[in-house]
């Protein structure tokens, strides 16, 4: 017991002496997030790419996008060419693992016939398949894990924690993020995706989808926080599905997700000694 206490004391002293170092090396520092060091050679390289959902989706928020428009398809193909410079060997998409056999079969059909038609193509068919075709990727997997949670709970109950701030925030959330408050209707697809993959936007996705719910609850309970925890749990389970895959340091993994999942995966991956996240903007030019 004395040894454990001594170790704890030493660790506490070490931590206190290195507070400034930790602050300087926060994950929000873009340079440090993607800095390369000698230990990275054995890590699995990941390009963690966020998008809006391009086809039909069950998500509450969907960006208006005509997935069958030829101009949009051409823009997607150009973006796929840019991302192909990453030279992925594996592609990960927002699909539950139980559909992997069907996903792989459809992907193989696309490789044989890139002009095949999809009734309601999503970012998977439009971007992931084309990126895989250009890059010669043979493996594609889904890591999604479906879990429902009530993100609208603050409007459905008597909120005893901080209803004024909660309601004020959701009335116009973009007001609090002037750096990313851009009229996306005037932007092309590449410009939209640059915003979607910006760290500020990814932070916003976590706040607006989950952490703001910590301001919701009754007098003696934590209803909002508990709902937010479900969303965190879903994303952690998706990360767990990623860790189930047989990946090696020779692999280069492209992950395509809705931006809120990208935001959580960014945090998980950036702390992991197993993975090395590459800078999306090195390819999204």
Automatic annotation (TrEMBL):
UniProt cross-references to Pfam families, sorted A to Z = DUF5694 (PF18950)
Q: Which InterPro entries does this UniProt record tie to the protein?
A: DUF5694
Q: From which domain of life does this come?
A: Bacteria
Report the protein name in the record. Answer: Uncharacterized protein
């Amino acid at each position: 017991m004395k040894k454990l206490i001594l170790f704890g004391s030493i660790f506490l002293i070490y931590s206190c002496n290195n507070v400034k170092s930790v602050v300087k090396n926060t994950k929000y520092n873009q340079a440090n997030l993607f800095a390369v060091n000698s230990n990275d050679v054995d890590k699995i390289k990941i390009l963690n790419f966020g998008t809006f959902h391009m086809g039909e989706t069950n998500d509450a928020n969907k960006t208006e996008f005509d997935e069958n428009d030829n101009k949009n398809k051409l823009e997607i193909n150009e973006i796929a060419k840019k991302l192909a410079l990453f030279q992925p060997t594996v592609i990960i998409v927002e699909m539950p693992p139980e559909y992997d056999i069907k996903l792989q079969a459809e992907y193989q059909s696309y490789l044989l016939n890139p002009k095949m038609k999809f009734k309601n193509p999503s970012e998977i068919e439009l971007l992931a398949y084309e990126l895989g075709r250009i890059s010669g990727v043979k493996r594609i997997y889904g890591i999604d894990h479906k879990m429902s949670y009530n993100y609208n709970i603050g409007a459905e109950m008597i909120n005893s924690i901080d209803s004024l701030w909660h309601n004020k925030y959701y009335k116009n959330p973009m007001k609090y993020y002037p750096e990313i408050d851009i009229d996306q209707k005037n932007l092309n697809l590449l410009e939209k995706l640059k915003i979607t993959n910006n760290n500020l936007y990814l932070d916003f996705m976590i706040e607006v989808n989950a952490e703001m719910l910590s301001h919701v609850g009754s007098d003696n309970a934590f209803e909002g926080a508990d709902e937010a925890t479900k969303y965190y749990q879903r994303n952690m389970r998706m990360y767990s599905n990623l860790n189930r895959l047989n990946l090696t340091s020779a692999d280069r993994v492209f992950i395509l997700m809705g931006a809120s999942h990208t935001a959580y995966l960014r945090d998980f991956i950036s702390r992991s000694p197993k993975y090395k996240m590459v800078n999306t903007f090195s390819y999204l030019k």
